[in-house]
Please model this.
Amino acid sequence: MTETASRPTLEAVAARAGVSRATASRVVNGGDGVREPLVERVRRAVEELGYVPNQAARSLVTRRHDAVAVVIAEPETRVFADPFFALQLRGISKELTAHDSQLVLLLTEGRDDHARVGRYLAGGHVDGALVFSLHLDDPLPQLIHGAGVPTVFGGRPGWGDGARRAVYVDSDNRGGAREAVRHLVGLGRTRVAHITGALDQTSAVDRLDGFRDVMGDADPRLVVEGDFTPAGGERAMRELLERCPDVDAVFAANDLTASGALRVLRERGRRVPDDVAVIGFDDMLPVAEQTDPPLTTVRQDIEEMGRLMARLLLRDLDRRTGKQGADGGPAGVVLPTTLVRRVSA
Model:
């Protein structure tokens, strides 16, 4: 056995830099009021000694844990099968990493997990929470509110009582849907259908509303509920063809739904886009560019949504801990969407 070297202390850093322990502590923990030459000396001493701050002691000074919970209100099987979540997590991770903050991932498999997540957030382990993929009957918002942690939501929250101010980041789901359906109508399609997402989520409701904005008097049989998955797209497309065999265009609520619909159309001998034009939503390149044919879709910047969620939360945390230049920021941010034209429509 070899004896490991003792861990450098804050006192050693102060001695190496020629400053008091209090000055070294303020620099290491991000405090203000230290002249720049002294800051540089302390930072140089930290690097030379390989000093790593004690997180517990640091938290006492900064009132921050440098950790953020990312809560996804979906089971593990869905999260790791859907590229949407990977893109959003990548954006969040990049922003948190740039601010030296850790990501703690929390998933909810069922109702029992909601209480567990609520207890964890209330336990003071993290500075705040980023929450997305909420469903309308989800108890998580109330549990998070009770935990008292700063929170930013991914997607427009479903409550409309005005009693709770929610900071959120979303895309223009309704406007993007309108653009997609107008494109299909502009192609001369007259039997335009919509396969929805899970209608207990606001993004699906907004996309359905966008479809109805353009096709308000459409045959109600042309709307079939899906669930944002390829299997849901397959099931809905089969139902749609049974209801309305003369359908000549489909706007699917997301790219995964569209991929399932394309498989069924191919099985039934329907040519895309000649017989049936298909448009998705998301523009997730691992899906949209690899479907047969490549998918025309509405692009939302999923990774940027994640980055912006994290940025808004970190700004709020800075404001709460009194850092200079921080403000409360907007309550809701809605990012634009664009139609990306490929072969399917």
In short: The CA atoms of residues 19 and 312 lie 36 Å apart. The mean pLDDT is 87. The first helix runs from residue 10 to 17. The chain has 14 helices and twelve strands.
